[in-house]
Amino acid sequence: MNSLIRSIGILILTCLLQVLIFRYAIFAGGWVVICFHIYGLILLPFELSKTSYILIGAVVGALIDVVLLTGGLHMAAGVFTCFMAPWLTTFIAPREGFTREHSISVLHDGWGRFLVLSSLISFTYMFSLFAIEGWKWSLLPNAIGKGIASTILNVILFAIVQGLFGPKPKSNSNKTSTYHW
Amino acid sequence: MRTLIQLIIRNHRLVLFVLLEIIALSWLASTHAHPRGSLAKIGMEISTSWTGAVGRLIDYKNLKENNSSLLIDNARLRTENMSYRNLSTSGRLFNSGDSWTSTPAEIIRYSTSFKNNVLVANQGSLAGLQPGMGMLENGVLAGFITEVSANHSLVLPVIHLSTTWSVRLGYGGAIGILTWSGESIEYATLTDIPLSEHILPGDSVITSGFQGTFPSGILVGKVEELIVTKADEFQSVTIKLSADYKRIHYVEFLSKAGTLEIDSLLSTSSR
After folding, report:
1. Superfamily of domain B37-160+245-256 in the CATH hierarchy
2. Neighbouring C-alpha atoms within 13 Å toward the C-beta of B149
3. Measured distance CA(A137)–CA(B113) in Å, rounded
């Protein structure tokens, strides 16, 4: 429960940052777009039911749509990503599976797993966003290209944030020295 | 019936997913990706208040004031220019009592990197703006208002996939439909031009005036290249847009006395 509240807090924070700051982060003529709220979706704990995950994706997307005036675009992408996310998680799950309250982090799962999951979820979100936005078969290759370009930048950003603010190892050093001095 | 309910319960995640996607896509489709209604107004107010706060932080006060006064002068001069043009054409072409007036405004939020770009201007219904009014950027066609709140307006620019514009090639040329392909924000495509029309790169493309949003003769862009398919009876033309969406900031909105009268006539005829 504690990890769930923490994850929801992070999700709200990432949504706020997306709406207030990262909305301006559009580079290379729209080929590279930062969607920082995806980081909040990635960090949701695995204990969440798949239904809740889809609902959270819909609510987050709808809120972003209302503020950014994108008319259902983020909601559609969010719902699709959260529908796919449990299946994507199976790619990086260890043989014995994840514990229920587990939320992905570099400290517990390593950089490899974190980057693979971030890339898969980011690409799913960005590709669906651009594909729905274009809504033409001819623009599908364009959407794939944009999805890949945006995923690379988003994952770099998520890695930096995870490195700076992610869980840190607890120090093992004893405060009481065994030596007299 | 029971089997159906059991089937829905068994696949409730898939049902929820499909349902939410339908809601999202109908939201998208019903608005043609440009927001309307009260939800859009709330979003616009939240969004613009934040953008306004950011803008205040980075704007140089004097420069802003100078630009605003220049814009007001520009709008006044353009209105005068249009009324002179009406006077000179009314005698020989048609007896037009139309008088266009322009209202200056500032673009406080814009997007140019999406397929369905929108702009937000800092004037709304309190300044007399209404949905359907045309927008000029530096004297050239740039967009039209689709939604207004008290203090802000939502504008659809040419670089929006669902907008079409009635334009003319030069002052006596053929009339075609201008659309944006979603590729580059500098170019749009003019279609439905007969093959008999002689077009050269660099020719001006101007508004036809038939949409009622703009007077005729407002510059839209210049011909860049011709796209001719032998099997087709019409040719397409790539137009380099004159509006600079990368630097758009100060704009003017055009309104015409008598628009309501024309609208009521059109609505009567469509009944």
Report:
1. Rod shape-determining protein MreC, domain 1 (2.40.10.340)
2. 21
3. 19
Note the pLDDT of residue B100.
82
CATH class of domain segment(s) A2-165: mainly alpha
Residue identified by tokens 């011709």 is B226
> Which of B226, B231, B218, B240 has the alpha carbon at shortest distance from B197?
B226
Query: Which two tokens mark B149?
Result: 């709140």
**Crossing angle (nearest 10°) for helices B37-58 and A50-68:** 60
DSSP three-state, residue A80 = helix
Question: Is A68 within 8 Å of B43 when comparing Cβ atoms?
Answer: yes
Residue spans of the domains in chain A: they are 2-165
Cβ of residue B72 closer than 8 Å to a chain A Cβ: no
| CA–CA gap between residue A70 and residue B111 (Å, rounded) | 11
The predicted-structure confidence for B101-122, as pLDDT tens digits, reads as follows 888 888 888 888 888 888 999 8
Instruction: Give kind and range of the element (H or E) at residue B144.
Output: strand B140-148
Element at B253 (helix H, strand E): strand B250-256
- Residue B257's SS3 state is coil
Flag whether residue B40 sits within 8 Å of chain A, measured between CB atoms: yes
The Cα–Cα gap between B141 and B219 comes to 6
Give the pLDDT band (50/70/90) at residue B139. Answer: confident
Fold of B165-241: Thrombin, subunit H (2.40.10)
For helices A50-68 and B12-30, give the axis angle rounded to 10 degrees.
10
Residue A158 has pLDDT above 70, yes or no: yes
Amino acid at B129: L
How close B24 comes to chain A (CA, Å)? Answer: 5
Query: Given A33, A75, A133, which is nearest B24 (Cβ)?
Result: A75
Euclidean distance between CA atoms B156 and B134, whole angstroms: 10
State mean pLDDT over A17-34.
83
ipTM of the complex, rounded to two decimals: 0.81
Question: Which DSSP category does A171 fall into?
Answer: P
Contact predicate B235/B176, CB 8 Å: no
Residue of A nearest to B14 (CA): A83
Tell whether A50 is within 8 A of chain B (Cβ). Answer: yes
Measured between CB atoms, which of B12, B20, B35 is closest to A71? B35
Is B25 in CB contact (< 8 Å) with chain A?
yes
- Please check whether residue B18 is in contact with residue A54, taking contact to mean a CB–CB distance below 8 angstroms: no
For B42, the 3-state DSSP assignment is helix
Instruction: Look at A69 and B23 and tell me if their CB atoms are within 8 Å.
Output: no
- The pair of structure tokens assigned to A140 is 């599908």
Q: Which of A66, A68, A132 sits opposite B42 (nearest CB)?
A: A66
